[in-house]
Structure formats: C-alpha cells, structure tokens
Amino acid sequence: MYFSSLIIPTTILASQWLISTVNALPLTNTNMQTVFSHQQNTNLYESEEQWYQSQEYGIFSTIVDYYENMVDTTLNSESEELLLNLIHLPKSTLNNVLSSQAELLGFNSISEKQISKMPSIIGKHIQIMNNNIYSSIEPVIKLHWRSIWDPKIIKANDEEETLSFLSTFNGIVAKRLMDEMDNFDLLDKIKDDLVQVSSTNEDAIGEKKQTNSLLSICEWMKTQVVKLVATKTQTSSDNTVAATPDLLEVDFLRQHLSDIRTSLLMELHVQFMDFFAKIQADIIDQLAIYYDDHY
Predict the structure, then answer these.
(1) Structural contact between residues 154 and 94, judged by C-beta atoms closer than 8 angstroms
(2) In this structure, are residues 28 and 132 in contact, taking their beta carbons and an 8 Å threshold?
(3) Which positions ≥6 away from 287 have C-beta within 8 Å?
(4) By the 8 A CB rule, do 101 and 251 touch?
(5) Is the dihedral of CA 50, 56, 60, 61 positive or negative?
(6) I need a surface site. Which of 114, 166, 179, 241 has the fewest CB within 10 A?
C-alpha cells in the first residue's frame, strides 16, 4: 500500500468501475435530518418496539454492522501501516521525512519545535478523520432506507430484487465515505495546527534534546498504534519488520489518503457477493423463525 510500487491490473479496473458508480450517484444534503424513528420511516409498525422486533430491522441492523465492521477494519489497517512505518524509520531519517512532508504542505521553512509536534498532530487528525468516516455510515443508511427498502425482500423469493437493493446501498455508502474524506480536509487541518506551534527559541535546542525529542516521538507513535488497533499487542508492534527509509513516500500524507480511498472502494467491491449471500441467509433464517412463532 504505502510502499508497494505494483498495482494488480484487475484491482485498477475494479476500482475504476466502483468510482464511476459512485460518481454517478446524486448528491445528498448532509444537513438533512437523519433521525430514524418508526413514525418517520414506516407506516407498517404501531410502535417503535415493533420496529425493533421486525424482520426489516434485523436486515437493517445486519447492513449497518457489515459496513461499520468493514470500514473500521480498513481504516485501522491503513492507519496502523502508516504509524508503524514512521516508527521504524531510523532516528536520523525521521526528521528529514517530516521536514519534506511539511514542505509539501506549503511551509518554506519549519522549526525543530514544529517538527517535534508534527507526529502527534498527524495522529490526532487521522484518528478524528477515521471516527468521522465511521460515524457517517449509520446516518446515511437511515437517510435512504425508506426510499430504497422494498418489503418484498423479506419474502426471500426474489434474489434480483435483493441484489439491486444492496447494490444501491453499496454505491450510496461508497459516495458518503469519499465525501467524508474530502470534507474533512486532513492536510489543511494538519497545516493549520503546525502554524499554531510556536517556533521561538528553536536555535537553542541542542543535539541531546533533539535525540530525546525523536525518542519521544517514537514512543508516542507506538502508543497510537495500540489505541488504533486494539487487537494488536505492543509486542507485535515492536516485532514488525521495519520499512527501509528509501521506500517511504515523500508525500506520505497524500499517499495515505489515496490508499484509504483505494482500500475502501476495493473492499466494497470484492466483499459485495459475500455480503449479498449473508443477507440472503439472514432473510431465510428470519423467515424460519417467523413461521415457527406463528404456525
């Protein structure tokens, strides 16, 4: 991802196909009310409790869980890779890498104090961006549910209807994820925070303090990895093979955003048929439960 120079041709074609699908979708008003209640979204249920006990809600919940799990896993994987590769850069190289990135953000010069603060600023805004992307999933599904849902899906006798239903949602979710990334403006937020960092007394920082600062940066990055990926232990992080510095993308922040886009679009594409099969199985299981309870 960050350090690979080869992209499988089929991956490119699949990404282009899904991107074209996303771009063809209508724009949505992100300020629209997305509160999902039985009164606003359906006339089929007499109470909210009935909605939560319905087969329709079971399908709705499965769809939300699927997208949230997929996005959470993808974002954590991409963020972990970036942080680990920065951690394992030689101390003598880390300063140059961060300085080069700052220059690409528009800084003509950058102080040592700004450099020392840069990893924490990057980590903070990547985490906030990831949270925003993840948090956008359920609201966009709620927003479009009533206009796309067809009660015939519950009967499980029309696979084509279910396939069309899920395909539409796949495109809607893909567009929202891309919009959330664009709207967050990760690079501008990092640049703004760096501007706020005082650069006074930068010449007074000696070689010993510089070494201690770089060590502190590495320790901070290790902590962020643990927070971002709960399933990874600190031991496994320490044992990860280090990336060679010449393979690190000079503009690693823009590369990170590009990798997130590619990974999210590809996961939406390659997992779709498994997702369809899971929904079909859930519908059949719910039908069996329904007939057991009523007949």
Answers:
(1) no
(2) no
(3) 55, 154, 155, 156
(4) yes
(5) positive
(6) 241
Burial state string for 208-227 with b = 16 or more CB within 10 A and e = fewer than 16: eeeeebbeebbeebeebbee
Question: What does the alpha-carbon distance between residue 168 and residue 117 come to, in Å, rounded to a whole number?
Answer: 43
The structure tokens listed for 159 are 């696979």
- Count helices and strands (H / E) in the chain: 13, 0
Closest CA to 140 of 177, 167, 165, 182: 177
pLDDT at 289: 64
Cα–Cα distance, 31 to 28 (Å, whole number): 9
One-letter amino acid for residue 179 of the chain: D
pLDDT at 198: 57
- The CA distance from 209 to 170, in Å, is 51
Closest CA to 70 of 271, 273, 228, 229: 271
Phi, psi torsion values for 26, nearest 5 degrees: -70, 150
Please, what is the angle between helix 55-87 and helix 252-270, to 10°? Answer: 150
Residue 294 main-chain phi, psi, to 5 deg: -110, -10
- Structure-derived torsion over alpha carbons of residues 282, 288, 292, 295, reported in degrees to the nearest 10: 130
Please give the average pLDDT of every successive group of 10 residues along the chain, which has 295 residues: 36 41 40 40 73 88 96 95 85 87 92 90 95 97 92 77 92 96 96 80 44 50 45 40 48 94 96 92 74 59
Q: Distances in Å between the alpha carbon of 90 and those of 80, 218, 255? A: 18, 10, 20
**Residue whose pair of structure tokens reads 């940066």 in the numeric block:** 217
